[in-house]
Amino acid sequence: MAKKKNNHQAKKEPTKDYGFLPDLPKSIKGYLISLALILIAAIVLFSFFGLAGKGGLQIFNSLLFLFGKATYLLPLFFVLAGVIFFIGSHQPNRILKMTGFAFSLCLLGLSAILNSFGTIEKLSVRSRPLGGFVGYFLSFPILRFFGFWVNLIIFMLMIIFGFLVFWQIAKKIQPRTAQELSEKIPILKKILEPKLKIREIPGVREDPNRQAREASLPNLKTKPIPGLMTGSGLSLYKNPPLDLLELEKGEPIAGDIRNNMVIIKNTLENFDIPVEMGEVNTGPTVTQYTLKPAEGIKLSKITALNNDLSLALATHPIRIEAPIPGKSLVGIEVPNSSRTMVRLRNLFEDEAFKNSASPLLFSLGRDVAGIPAFADLSRMPHLLVAGATGTGKTICLNSILLGLLYRNSPETMRLIMVDPKRVEFPVYQDIPHLLSPIIYDSQKTVNALKWLTKEMERRFEVLAAAKTRDIASYNKIISQKMSKTKSGRDSEGISEEILEIMPYIVVIIDELADLMAARGKEVEAGIVRLAQMARAVGIHLIVATQRPSVEVITGLIKANITSRITFQVASQIDSRTVIDAAGAEKLLGAGDMLFISPEISKPRRIQGAYVTEKEVKRVTDFLKSQKEDFGLLTENFLAEELARELKGGEDVGQELFNSDNEDSLYLEAKQLVIEYKKASASMLQRRLRVGYARAARLLDILEERGVVGPADGARPREVYVKTEPTLENSVPMPREKNEDDDDWEKV
Fold it and tell me: Which helix (H) or strand (E) holds 556?
């Protein structure tokens, strides 16, 4: 019984929102006053001919007694006043008092003038003056002391003044704007319309002072990032200026917001779902109408009415978010009648982007409320982008790339770009951030993934030796050591210990489906291996595909890449394949996306930033010019090794794991470890003047040949070979091993 009682009360609750005349809009009040005046004019007019019944006859006699013959002009005055109120129905408060004042002046002046003629004819009060008793009492003192002509002039001027007031009122009535006419709502709907709260997010408006400030607009500079330090080779590096990008123009037009709120409320009430309308959020693509259902209403009943609401609103498609994360509200997202374009420059100028210390922060776009949306690749730590052809995937990748390039120098971040389609990334060729030329071949992609796996393992060894848990902590320690030993150089110009900053490595694969079709097992194994472990060492993947099927986005890839972006897809099945939820099939395309990450529980709708090819080319040309002018890239052993491995054939990828090939510095490294009776990568770095990657590779070869033992944590490796062969630059033949032979000097 209690439950029924609560439901009954919930159904009656919305009726409290309806009011009568005091709560009506101004325009409705103006219409009602206009109709009332015209009705009075009709009653008075009919009473002249005895067509208004006894009541009309009584009204006629009363008016005739008060105003005399001026009564016959009362219908005209009432009609004029009604027309003025009807034209100015949206601003009745401005004309109410002035219209009454002008009406009174004309009526009283006319009555007094008529009474003046009656006085000349020697009509007394008892014989009912022509101007009625009102005119008689107005004109009698003036006629007695000043005469007929003065009386006539005074009240004629009064009538003229009254008509002038009427004229000024008609001139000052402001016509309706084009937007008000387009949003015109039927009168009955306005009368029955509930009182609703609307909060519109202000759109992007053009600032007339923008151009004056552009000259002094500072370039976007990367804040000092913990663990990242610019070396001497990159001291002249400058981040691209913001004026290379375009600004946002215009603002979105949501349409008839109030009428849509009434339609949504009435449609839900027709299905016995009483709701209380909330605020309205206007974004660049859609407008979100929020509502709170009554107690006891299941959310599934609201989501099941998607098509009914779409039919009532005469728009398609709409998306229902039930509930809105963090709020006890339901959101209904309706496409705007006019969309606006989100641009990168406005997002980069946002304080949240400029003040963030994360090196891998990039901008996604604006959400349904017009608020800028950013994401941190280091916290994702990998990203999957999917969507049908032409929905904005490549533009999204370009916006992500520009966000990373604006925040990082080539020393703090390096890129490996894979473009099987060969048409999306050529504009980025030769920028200083690339570790290798853009990869187009599937076999080279597999080799790059294998090299990344080896680099990941090497970095883990470095972190373990430094007793740090991630790349940020390691770079912070290295930066501190570099600052301490910067001035302490030996006679050879080499410090006591060669220190190396680890750059972040971001791998961008534009089309995963082609790679999976050519070398599915190897590509999947490489992606899964990196996605599982590479976060701590600063290697991150961004994978895009236009075919979101289970053959391309396999279960292992989905399980290890939890941050995903989906654009418009063909079916609900494809949407569930990408984000494990429906909704992507109802997106509008052209950058409209759903974003999900481990930090948010439900997909977040975002309008992606639009970046043109001209903008991308301007930024990349700026970066290339710095590479040519200042020689930014010093010798980089990561790039050297990767380039060498990518030149080989199908077996080249295995060379990173097998040591059959011999490094040119192998014999020198072998002689060093035998001479010093210890083996470590730092020692080989100092003596051979090589990078850590090559030193670690030499150690692996020495271990394969039995010269040194396996790694033992942070301690140096044990040297098994005690003496060096007499013949230099030759490798001795291994002798036969006896069962009791424990001598390891056989290399």
Answer: helix 555-560
CA dihedral 412→416→417→418, nearest 10 degrees, is -160
Question: How many CB atoms are closer than 10 A to CB 216?
Answer: 6
Amino acid occupying residue 63: L
Q: Which pLDDT score, from 0 to 100, does residue 662 have?
A: 56
- DSSP letter assigned to residue 548: -
What was the pLDDT predicted at 668?
86
Is the pLDDT assigned to residue 726 strictly greater than 70?
Answer: no
- Amino acid residing at 648: G
* Mean of the per-residue pLDDT values of the chain: 75
Q: In terms of pTM, does the model score above 0.70?
A: no
Superfamily of domain 344-487+496-629: P-loop containing nucleotide triphosphate hydrolases (3.40.50.300)
Sequence ranges of the chain with CATH classification 3.40.50.300? 344-487+496-629
CA distances from 50 to 38, 45, 58, 103 (A): 18, 9, 10, 25
**CB distance 717 to 710 below 8 Å:** yes
Tens-place pLDDT, residues 599-639: 887 899 999 999 999 999 999 999 888 776 544 444 455 66
Residue 310 corresponds to which tokens in the numbers above? Answer: 């779409």
Tokens of 119: 């006085």
The CATH code of the domain at 659-747 is: 1.10.10.10
pLDDT digits (tens, 9 = 90+) for 299-348: 889 989 989 999 998 888 889 988 888 888 999 999 988 888 899 999 99
Portions of the chain given CATH number 1.10.10.10: 659-747
- Dihedral class, residue 547 (left if φ above 0, else alpha if ψ from -120 to 50, else beta): beta
10 Å CB burial of residue 608 (0-12, 13-18, 19+) is buried
